Amino acid sequence: MFRRMLLLGTVAGAAALPLSGKAEMVAYTVEPTHTAATWAIPHLGISIIRGRFDKTAGKINLDQIGRAGTVEITIEAASVNAGNKKFEDHLRSKDFFDAEQFPKVTYRGRLGKFEGDTPTEVEGELTLLGQTRPVNLKILSFKCRAHPLLKREVCGADAATTIDRSQFGMTSSVAFTSARVDLMLQIEALKD
Questions:
Q1: What is the pLDDT confidence band of residue 21, given thresholds at 50, 70 and 90?
Q2: pTM (2 decimals)?
Q3: Which CATH number fits domain 25-191: 2.40.128.110, 2.30.110.10, 1.10.357.10, 2.130.10.10?
């Protein structure tokens, strides 16, 4: 479990000094090349279709001592990637993400639960197709360390939730697929 520390020197053999123990909000910027929003949806009751969004951005604010923080993730809807161009074009259309009219999918929340100094849940809201609904994320994994190349603190998390896409107005093909969508966020964020 990560403990708040001030990291000095190189990663190998770095000296570490504990912070003063005061609550401190620390800002992190999502590192897009190691961050992904992925999804899975049942298809015809016989298989699971999986995909991802290739362009994500965001900010994380974290105070591990005070057990508080915020999360803001922005996803470019047109960056949907399902491994098939024809299918991706359909997903970008008005039938699904309507990426031209609603280019961004956003998630904003606060770190609501902790075990010790480790966050375990985000209580927040997802905005999709211009509609905002409450959606909580369960944090499955959370770790921080010194980045071996950048020599800066980096935090990573895996989080997951399940939504009913029809609640956001995405009702196309529900009879053939499902309204249920499993969402996963794999995030790495660098300390500002």
A1: low
A2: 0.84
A3: 2.40.128.110
